[in-house]
Amino acid sequence: MRVPLSWLREYVDLPATETGRDVQAKLIPAGLEVETVEQLGADLKGPLVVGQVLTIEELEGFKKPIRFCTVDVGRANGTGEPQEIVCGARNFAVGDKVVVVLPGATLPGGFSIAARKTYGKTSHGMICSGDELGMGDDGSHGIIVLPPEHEAGTDAIELLQLVDEVLDIAVTANRGDCLSIRGVAREAAIAYGRPLSDPALLDVPAPNAYGHPVKVSDPFGCDRFTARTVTGLDPEARSPIWLQRRLQKAGMRPISLAVDVTNYVMIELGQPLHAYDRTRIQGAVGVRRAERGERLTTLDGVDRTLSTEDLVITDDRGPIGLAGVMGGADTEIDDTEGTTTEVVIEAAHFDPVAIARTARRHKLGSEAARRFERGVDPQAASAAAQRTVDLLVLLAGGTADAGVTEVVAPSAPRTITIPADHPDKVAGVTYGRETVVRRLQQIGCDVYGTDELIVTVPSWRPDLADPNDLAEEVIRLEGYENLPSTLPRPLPGHGLTGRQRLHRRVGRALAGAGYVEAPNYPFLGTAAFDQLGLDADDPRRTVVTLVNPLSDEEPALRTTLLPGLLGALRRNDGRGGHDLALFETGLVFRPTGQEEAPARLPADRRPTREQL
Hints:
Blueprint: E1 2-4, H1 5-8, H2 20-27, E2 33-40, E3 48-59, E4 66-72, E5 83-87, E6 97-101, E7 106-107, E8 111-112, E9 116-118, E10 121-123, E11 126-127, E12 145-146, H3 156-159, E13 164-170, H4 181-192, E14 214-216, E15 222-231, H5 241-249, H6 257-269, E16 273-277, E17 285-289, E18 295-297, E19 303-305, E20 311-315, E21 318-322, E22 326-327, E23 343-350, H7 352-361, H8 367-372, H9 381-396, E24 399-408, E25 415-419, H10 422-427, H11 433-442, E26 446-448, E27 452-456, H12 467-478, H13 498-512, E28 516-517, E29 523-524, H14 527-532, E30 556-557, H15 562-574, E31 582-583
Helix pairs in contact: 5-6, 6-9, 11-12
């Protein structure tokens, strides 16, 4: 999970001087594995400004097309005169607003810009692409063409948000809530002791009967489905720069306004969404298991044969999407022809196991599936849908339809009963009831009771299932590093037994006489008895056979030490060790047929002499 520090600051009032490294040092002890802190624009130096292309002259006689341009950069060059620049890109025209780096600037990677003669002309700067500015993949690999409202000479470093820090967090499988800016902000707010400005706290209209019809046939696979509609969208509207840059910093590529908005809200709130072209949906939207033989062409253009275990989104014609994984091509937003003016927003909560199995079955990983299979906050669906509607109305000039559809399977809040001193016993530290209650409330729990606490778990933490999980949260927030390192005190012993003392005396006597101890595995095969020449009725031939022996050739416990010692002598003699004397003290196992089942030895105290 990539978390831009500038985005995180919107929801947590971090100290102004706090750097990404400082935030990393706070989050790691709290249990978030911040692997790296990427410095964006650390070696970038201006002037980097908005320019307007005034003229373009095509230069002939070269191996590739070259253009000689004059660009208005305002007063950024100190004269106000047009800047002459040589450029090989073809994706801009006269009148376009572009990003211009002027002589004296330094681009990411330490690339210094100076006036230089090339292709028979002197180029006073460079017209920049996103790759050259370290902006990541914008899908075009060409010159950045800015919206026309930006004035020539405007500082492009600030406009394009090129200077930032990005935390790269390895989110564990049990912390799906941290696959969102909201989740990481919640942890940062606790770590810094600052209030959280929750982006999910929105005014959401109540469900009514006027929204797009939805029918959920599998309430176990989908326990919540919210549908909202936005009409009157401007099909030519494009994602603003700030939204594109946030997506790029978070590791996603801008595609089109409607898709970008759903991706933005998913990263912000952790709730995956999907937008359908309303004119391409026939009838009600449904959720069910796929039927045998059904097929679906997903957004990646692959025609897939569905399994009866797949959870699918449908309309009257059949499947239109793999629920929680990827939408279908038949209802996709048309961003090429620019004809989509009405969209239906889906914000749902699907069964994590079903989504994980579908994604693996079709080898189709997606950001949505990654979140669903780790656990998504079911209570965030309506807020995420509202946030998406608000952004589409703001950025595409749409109108929010009055209809609000919400299908919810009834469920009770999850509660856990925990003794107030349970974290103390687990950690071996006295935290006290007040600390336990405060820490549980910080992670979003409602806590009641005195000695026995009744804890209502927040909807965004499906990993909290028993008292030990709650104890872990208290210990984590109090700091693992604050746990004292106390060695356990040994319990008083009773000394060696008579047999143990005899073994030691015999061993010391033999070692003093020049013998070398040769401990062997206590296993043997019946062939060893024949090699020793034992009689058929010799009691040493009666053995205890193991159920799961290490070797099929030696499946029994030894009844004599001789086979092991003779084998050791043979191996040493074969390796040139002819002058040696070996001994072994150890157990042999001679069953009588009247043995009782062995006593179960205690794990929390020293066994008694009788048990031994």
